Amino acid sequence: MIVTRFAPSPTGYLHIGGLRTALFSYLWAKRNGGTFLLRIEDTDMARNNEEAALAIVEAFKWVGLAHDGEITYQSRRMDIYKEYIEKLLHSGKAYRCYMSKEELDALREEQSARKERPRYDGRYRDFTGTPPEGVAPVIRIKAPQSGVLSVHDGVKGRIDFRVEDILDDFIIARSDGTPTYNFVVAVDDALMGVTTVIRGDDHLSNTPKQMVVYEALGFKIPEFYHVPMIHNAEGKKLSKRDGATDVMMYREMGYLPEALLNFLVRLGWSHGDQELFSMKEMLALFNPADINKSASIYNTEKLDWLNGHYIKNCSNDRLAQLLEGFELFLSSHDKREILLDAVKERSKTLADMAAQIREILQAPEVYDEKAVAKAFKSEATEVLEVFAMRLCDARELHLPSDYHQVMEALVGEMGIGFGKLGQPLRLALLGKLGGPGLDSVMAIIGADETRRRIEKAIAQIV
Ligand code: GLU
Asked: 10 in ligand 1 pocket by Cβ < 6 Å?
């Protein structure tokens, strides 16, 4: 059975890069009928961990990922860590180190004078004497002292670390007894039965240390997949300056959860040249062995394109419901279907869609000056006036096609190109050029409102 986990340090929100590794972990567990666990790495007690966990669960809920079982909080497991530290002391795989801060500083200085990496020299490793007075010891684990430690990584292949470069007998418990990061991660992963660790490759340098803990405690080493970072267009690690990092901000900006997940699954993973993945397809196809070796590039246009795709394919019922989050209430609008159909093809986000809808529903206050100069030529007033009259005369005007007929008849009779009517009419109705089909706009606002907007435009522009 595959057991994966997502193990965020509490920051109060779910980071977009975190969601990607959570997604990878979720997909791999679920694809194999396994378990996806959530662990809050909150040994740093200063932060509000409940809130952070809630923020993560809320974001998971929004995107539709769910963790299995109870949330594990490291802050509540101190007794367990103590027990394992005792075990290691007992078996002689860890030991108390009484080195004072001054001694440690002196050692570091000597090493840096020799241009060596700062590294504990193991002086208390086999200490049997009487401990010095007044020093609260730390507990160090016995790590290999030389040779090569190999990490078998599912993404990067075998990585050989020279022990001298990466390890020393590192501290597993501080002098106040609190356990250290790499120790608790390894203990928890083992006790939670995690078989497969999928995480950012910024953690790769921790892995040898965690392996030392695994081996000392006789745990089975899990499979590791270290996922390359997400970079911005300049090739630097994604940061707040590049846009939103909080997953819930994406909801506020009007991204659909399925678009965000589709976007994230393709950041660092691919299946041929396929771009669109439903959750079902992700579950059928995702394999961490196919994660790319190089960093992926965050590309807003791609996200917008995907979001546009999912908006276009979203039911109008769901869209109407989602738009309520953008203060747009359409449930009682009798032309809701035409309205949503007219804009869903051309919206990048729900926020964008709401703005476009408002532009249709509200008469323009101002008219784009450049567009006026371009499209509101001398004959425009006359054409619009005739058109407004034709709308009065027409009997049945409901559908976009009804309005289209009136427009077509008019340009035919007047012997003018479609644009001679279309462009000034667009300006009158929307205040600018561009936007959805005019016949739809008129069907949505109705003939009376269309005429009112025409009159207003003529009065204000001419
Ligand atoms: N808590 C770590 C972080 O938020 C992740 C630890 C891990 O996945 O092993 O970066």
From this structure: no
- The amino acid occupying position 384 is L
Domain spanning 1-72+228-313: which superfamily? HUPs (3.40.50.620)
Query: What token pair was written down for 176?
Result: 């106040």
- So what's the architecture of 369-461 in CATH? Orthogonal Bundle (1.10)
CATH 1.10.10.350 domain range(s) in the chain: 369-461
CATH code, residues 78-227: 3.40.50.620
The secondary structure of 359-405 as a DSSP string is: HHHS--SS--HHHHHHH--TTHHHHHHHHHHHHHH-S---SHHHHHH
Confidence bin at 131 (pLDDT 50/70/90):
very high
pTM to 2 decimal places: 0.94
What local confidence, expressed as pLDDT, does residue 68 receive?
98
Choice from 185, 205, 226 to test ligand 1 binding pocket (greatest atom count within 8 A of CB): 185
Average pLDDT (151-169) is 97
- Cite the active site residues: 240
Supply φ then ψ for residue 284, to 5 degrees. -80, -25
pLDDT-derived band at 49, boundaries 50, 70, 90 = confident
Candidates 72, 52, 62; CA nearest to 23 is 62
From the CA of 200, give the closest atom in ligand 1: 8
